[in-house]
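so my prof wants the structure for this chain in the tokens format not the other one, which i didnt know existed until like an hour ago. anyway here's the sequence
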Amino acid sequence: MKPLLRAVLIIDALILLASGLLFLLTPWKSLYDALQLSQTDPVLVGQGFGIALIGLAWLALHASIDGAMTATVAKVVGHVNWLTGVLMLIWLVGLHTPSLSGLDQLVAVATGAVLLVVGLGGVRLASAVRRRDRLAGTAAAERAGRVAARDTANEARKAERERDAARPDGVYPAGGSHAVEPMPGTTLPGSAVSPVSPATGHPVESDLTAPPRTSATRSREDALARERAAAADEEAAARERAAAEGKSGTPRPPFHG
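here's what i got, hopefully its the right format
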């Protein structure tokens, strides 16, 4: 639709240029006599009107090239054309002023009708093009907003994944929804497990710098463990015998200082 409006603007520019040149040549009486046209009186008014029409023609031609000016200039030029056409029809048909012959009056009426049709068509086309441009701009803005929102969401998810990847296993922000407190006697995944002493129940710190054990060292440790176990058994047996004697009521020897 916009190329059609540009074609209408080119037609308007040609019509305005021809009319402007004709009014600019108002002092040329022989030309007006040959064309059987009435000269503008005073001549200054005709030449000023001709310059204005030439400027409007240049503006229409420039708007047919520059897309940003097309709709606005086409609307203005269209209003100028159809108003000029209506004015010509009122004076020539209604008031019969100036008085023209049959052929001249027919040409003048046809010119007024052409200006009326072209002007109204240009105004309608300009309104349609402007409406389509506005809708296209709104759709483009909405599309840009959706793209920006999607990019923001993707960036947020990417940052969350990077934080999750950089966070150690089992460690979460304090007070967060994923905070985990280990139960007594349990360990979190990835945490080091310390050995527990069977006698005291407390964890025993391992010596990370201890030299590796050999077979001789293990045999000595086994022998010492067996000796400690035998001594513990003997001590337990002695305690059991003493307890049994205390229950049987056997008299104890007097205490000698």
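also thought this was worth mentioning. The CA atoms of residues 9 and 97 lie 30 Å apart.
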